[in-house]
Specification:
Helix content is 2%, strand content 62%. Strands 1-4-5-6-13-8-11 form a seven-stranded antiparallel β-sheet, with no helix packed on it. Strands 2-3-19-16-21-14 form a six-stranded antiparallel β-sheet. The two termini are 31 Å apart.
Length: 208
């Protein structure tokens, strides 16, 4: 089952405008493809090249978020894929057979190979970056109190900010729950202002 998740803060209107808007040379993606898996839901936030498909394996990198609603699950083996997984809410323990074990709480992350045998324990909402064919990225999580500011460097060849919860403003662009900001070139020393208590993730693709 697949469905498009719409941002509740963005009013109904032109479908193309709902999917993506362009503001101050930045793109804001507001509509995402969500599908069910045995333990919850997975939402694909972005896939590159655009138009590639996860099931076909013809992507170079993919950004997604998933809910884990069962206590224990095994990851699907993904040979040739490097993964970074971050917990957004809840707690997850990752057990990589013959490698390492790591307990993740909110905004903690783990970097591992998709071909490893991996078992997860615990219920949570997570954030995933999958990279193939030498593509590399960085993932960093932020929690911001209302009416605070912080400086960030989007130093990748392409950069993303996913606002999980709250409301933030960056370079005159306002993001609400579930929005994905896409910045197609480096954008250094940018100020992020939290208009509400917020939690967001930044992805910098440093090798493509």
């Amino acid at each position: 089952m697949k469905k498009l998740a719409q941002n509740k803060h963005f009013p109904a209107g032109n479908h193309q405008e709902l999917k993506e808007r362009k503001v101050n040379n930045y793109r804001i993606k507001k509509e995402h493809l969500t599908s069910n898996w045995a333990g919850g839901e997975t939402t694909e936030l972005y896939i590159f090249p655009e138009g590639s498909e996860y099931k076909k394996g013809d992507f170079l990198f993919r950004i997604s978020s998933a809910t884990v609603e069962i206590e224990e699950s095994s990851f699907t083996p993904l040979p040739g894929v490097e993964r970074i997984l971050m917990v957004l809410d809840g707690q997850m323990k990752l057990e990589h057979e013959n490698h390492h074990t790591k307990l993740l709480e909110a905004l903690d992350s783990d970097h591992f190979s998709g071909e490893w045998n991996t078992l997860s324990k615990g219920k949570c909402t997570d954030f995933n970056l999958m990279c193939k064919s030498g593509t590399k990225g960085k993932v960093k999580g932020f929690k911001a109190s209302e009416n605070t500011e912080q400086q960030i460097d989007m130093d990748g060849k392409i950069n993303f900010i996913f606002l999980y919860k709250g409301c933030i403003e960056i370079s005159g662009v306002t993001l609400n729950d579930g929005d994905l900001l896409i910045v197609d070139s480096p954008a250094l020393n940018r100020t992020v202002k939290a208009l509400q208590e917020s939690k967001f993730v930044m992805v910098n693709m440093i090798q493509m």
